[in-house]
Design brief:
mainly alpha
């Protein structure tokens, strides 16, 4: 999980504050995140068979919000910064 948090997620989210995401983009990002987490976490051996981890298991192991929610939070934070910047700029005009 350290690899995902330190290498993959920051590269993936670069400039996410200015993205305009459609529902299809949200879906693609979610699918990409699950694929990467499955690859990092690996399969589970149940008896003699191996199976992929379920999404719930991956999110439990990852223990963070999903990528799309993180992008939305980042965009809201950036929008708040822009609003505060306009207010401060107007005070000194």
């Amino acid at each position: 999980m350290v690899i995902y948090k330190t290498l993959i997620k920051p590269v993936l989210m670069y400039g996410a504050e200015t993205w305009v995401l459609s529902k299809a983009d949200d879906l693609r990002l979610g699918v990409f995140e699950i694929k990467i987490l499955r690859r990092i976490c690996g399969s589970i051996c149940e008896g003699v068979t191996w199976r992929s981890r379920y999404n719930e298991e991956l999110y439990r192991l990852h223990d963070e919000t999903d990528l799309v929610t993180t992008i939305r939070i980042t965009r809201l934070r950036w929008a708040g910064h822009i609003v505060r910047m306009k207010i401060i700029y107007n005070k000194f005009k």
